[in-house]
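Journal club prep — side note

Before the paper discussion, L.F. wants everyone to see what a predicted structure for a comparable chain looks like in token form. Sequence:
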Amino acid sequence: MVRLRSTSSVGKGVKSIYDEIYGYIPVSELELKVIETPTLQRLRRIKQLALAWYVYPGAVHTRFSHSLGVMHVIGIIASKFIDEGYIKRDDYELLRIAGVLHDIGHTPYSHAIELYMTQAFKVRHEEMATYVIENDPYLNEVFSKYGVNPKEVSSIIRGTHKEPLHNMLLSSDLDADRIDYLLRDSLHTGVAYGMIDIDRILHTLMVDKDGEIAVPAKSVQAIENFYIARMHMYRAVYHHKTIAAFQVMMKTIYEMMLNELREYLEPFTTISNILSTIKKGTFYLWDDNYIAGLMNLTLVKNLGSDDLKDLIRLLFNRVGYKAVYDKIKLSREPLSVRENEEAISLSNLKDLIINGLGYKDFMAIPYVEELNLVDEDLCVKILDNESTTRITEFESSIINSIPRYIAITRLYVHPYILDKVRNMIRK
């Protein structure tokens, strides 16, 4: 357990919540009221890593525990910077509230259904979070009572607050969100790659003369380990081949339910309807249980098409899509994988499977992702002999040598056609 404690007079709570990573997290009266809203309690019913527990059985932790962890970490950093004169004391609770609410806009099954939302409506969870914070009646009742400006809270989450340092605490290469999810996801999956030296990082964190977050050269190894841990967690957990297959299957099931059983998903079917539920105070009902319950109902009541019911049975029995093509590339330059020859070839292969073999569209699904491992503009600064440089330019750091981008290109196929597709590819 990581026993993070603030030595500042800031942050004495009226109640404590026990966390599996940090021990007791003190919360103020305002924070407790925010935490107790149905809107934030909804995150108890959304798993942090969606279907990762199909591969790592312990990965059943929630967006709620992660949100508390981010609030705690951002509070530790803020109290340090308050004592050093970089942050106003009055902004301590504001930053913690932004921390606990940063994931408030997540969809059920997290990134599995967010992928659909992004493709269908061009909306990401950060934008949803902004709308929830500024329009949810339960949160706004608390904000009104305690004099909190919801637009200021959402500006920190968007990274547009007038104080640049506030934005960095929640939107930078080394922010409270990344620190907590690496520790928490590593603990619950059992994947040791995600372990980082959080005590060293937070103890030596500082603000440089440009007002940006930095660490002294003596802590460079801790920061290097942070970057490497994140790179390995992308491969071992967040974009693990089998986990991604179940995410793809869940997205496919959700799309099919929208088409075939739309009335059961109302009002959470369009962006305008979802935004309406936020204003009406019913958004808190849209969670993992809601989607899982409909999948159960589909089988119990024999609803929808045979294809839909078959996919749900496969998901429930942990039989996922299979990758017939799987390639990972590491690079120092953007790879533009969605437009390169490899992605085009993958699309052509899908067309051949669907049109050539006569299968339905959902039976072959490309999976293409490009991830920025080290952001040259937002990466951590290293203080050495009173001058600071980005870690990517610091001569004594191994980060000079690691790739900046990782590109994942896969083609998933329905398990029923796996052998036929493999035979076709061999020919």
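L.F.'s comment for the group: The first strand starts at residue 15 and ends at 19. Keep this in mind when we get to the figures.
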